[in-house]
Amino acid sequence: MKQNFTSIDSHIQRQILDFCRHIAGASKITAVGIVNAYPIEKASGKTVLELLVIIRNFQPRLLSYFKIIGNRTFLAFAVDEWIFERDIDRGFLGESIGGKLVFPHKALLGEGYLHQKEVSLKKRLIQESLENLVFSFPELANSMKIQPLYFLYEVLLNRIRVFPLLAYDMPDLMECLHQDEAQALEGYNEALTELATQGKIKLSNDYVTIPKSFIAKCQDPKVKIINLSKNAPRRLFSSFFGVLPQLMSLVSQNTEVFLRIQKLNWRQPIIPTCTVVDPQKYVFFPTAQGLVSLADKVDVKSFAQKMLTAGRGEDIEVEPFGGVLNDVYLIKAHAEGVETKVLAKRFKDWSGFKWFPLTLWSFGARSFAVSAQARLAKEIASSEFLRNEGFNVPKILHVSNAERLIFMEFIEAESLGLAIKRIATAKNGENNDADLAKVGKAGEILAQVHARNMSLGDTKPENMLVKPDGAIFLIDFEQATRGGDKAWDVAVFLYFSGHYIQLFDGNAKAEAIAKAFIDGYLRGGGEAADVRKAGLPKYTRVFRVFTMPATIKAISNVCKKTEKSK
Question: Which domains are seen in the chain, by residue range?
Answer without folding.
Answer: 10-110 (3.30.460.10), 120-279 (no CATH), 296-409 (3.30.200.20), 414-560 (1.10.510.10)
